[in-house]
Amino acid sequence: MSNRKWSLGLIVLVIVFGYILIQFFFSTMKINDLVRRMGPDKTVESSVKYVVLISQELDNAFWREMEKGAGNEAEKLGMKLVYMGPIRSNVSEQIRLLEKSIALKPDAIMVQGIADPDYEQLINKAVDQGIPVITVDADEPSSRRLAYVGTDNRAAGKQMGELVLKDHAGSGKIGVIIGSEMSDSQRLRLEGFRSVITSVPGMEIVDIRASNISHIGAAKQTRDMLSHYKEIETIVGFSSLDAGGILEGVKAMGKQGVRVYGFDNLEITRQGIAQGEIIASIVQQPQEIGSKSIDLLSGLFKGDKLTGQYFIPTYVLDQAQMQGGGISP
C-alpha cells in the first residue's frame, strides 16, 4: 500500500512539474515571438504598433479578462497585443519580464504597479527610452508612467465598507483576507474599508490575513482566523480568489451564520451569491480596463497626451442583482 501511495505521489509531482514546464515554455515562446516580430530585421508590418501586457499571474481569470478586452480593442485598431506573466504571482518574475520587454523595444507597455523600487526604476527606464508605460489594476504613482487605468481601489474599499455596514445592525467583529501584502491595490482597498468600518462604534476589524492570491490560501487563512477568533461574524475578501476560499474555510470549520463578501465575479463567487452563501461582491471590469488602455495608447500614438488616472467604475453583485439581471454601479 505504501509503495502504491509513493507511486501516486510521484505521478502527481511529475504532472505538476510538467504543467509548470509547459507554462514556462509558452511564456518563453511569447518572448521569442516578440523578438522575431519586433527585431531589427523585420520587414513586414513595420507600421503596426506592438503593446506588451504583463499580468500579475498568467492564467488568473481577472487578467485573462483584461487580455481579452485589450486584445479585442487592439485588433479593432490595427495594433498587436503580446500578453505574458508569471505562472504564479511572483514579483521577481514580473520584474524580469518587464526588463526583457524593455530590451525588445515595443511601442508601449501595460503593467501592474507593485510598489517595488527596482520595478519603478524599470518603468522610468522604459519611459526614458521612449516606450510609454501605462499601469493597470494597481498604480505606480511615484514612477514616470504616463497614466493609470483601473479601479479606484480606495473608493472600492469604501464601497465594501458601506455594503457591510448596511447589512449589519451597527455592531460586529470582522475578519479580512487580502490577496497580497505586496499589492498596492489591496492596501488601498483595505485603507478605504477601514476608514468606513472604524468610523462606527461597535464595528471592529479583529484580524487581517493574506491569501497569497490563492483559493487554497484563503481557505487556510479563514480556518486559522476562525479558530483564533470565534466571535467573527463577517469575513471580507479583497482579491478575486478570496470569496470562494473563505466560503470553503467557513464550511470546513462548521461555522454557521458567517457573512462572506468578495471581490469580482468568478463563477464560484456567482454560485455562492446565487445560493445565498456569499452576501455580495464588489465587481471590477477588467475587460473595460484593457480596452480603455489600448484606446488611450492609440490616441497617444496619434499625438494625444495622457495624464493622471482613468478610473473604471465597480458595481455591487448580490442575489437581487443576479435575479433581476441588472447591476448596481
Polypeptide structure, described:
Strand 3, helix 4 and strand 4 form a beta-alpha-beta unit. A six-stranded parallel beta sheet has the order 2-1-3-4-5-11, sandwiched between helices. The protein is built from eleven helices and twelve strands. The chain has two domains: 136 residues, Rossmann fold; 131 residues, Rossmann fold (3-Layer(aba) Sandwich), CATH 3.40.50.2300. The termini are far apart. By secondary structure, the chain is α/β, with parallel strands linked by helices.
Q: Short summary of the structure?
A:
The protein is an alpha/beta fold. It has helices spanning 2-38, 61-76, 91-104, 117-128, 153-166, 184-197, 215-228, 242-252, 267-274, 286-301, 319-324; strands at 50-54, 80-84, 108-111, 133-136, 147-150, 172-178, 203-210, 234-237, 259-263, 280-283, 309-311, 315-318. The protein folds into two domains: 30-35 and 48-150 and 286-312, Rossmann fold; 153-283, Rossmann fold.
Mean pLDDT: 88
Shape: elongated
Order of helices and strands: HEHEHEHEEHEHEHEHEHEHEEH
Q: Briefly note the CATH topology name of the largest domain.
A: Rossmann fold
What spatial order of strands do you see in the largest sheet?
A: 2-1-3-4-5-11
Helix content: 40-55%
Query: Structural class of the helices, strands and pairings?
Result: alpha/beta
Straight-line N-to-C gap: 57 Å
For the record, the CATH class of the largest domain is Alpha Beta
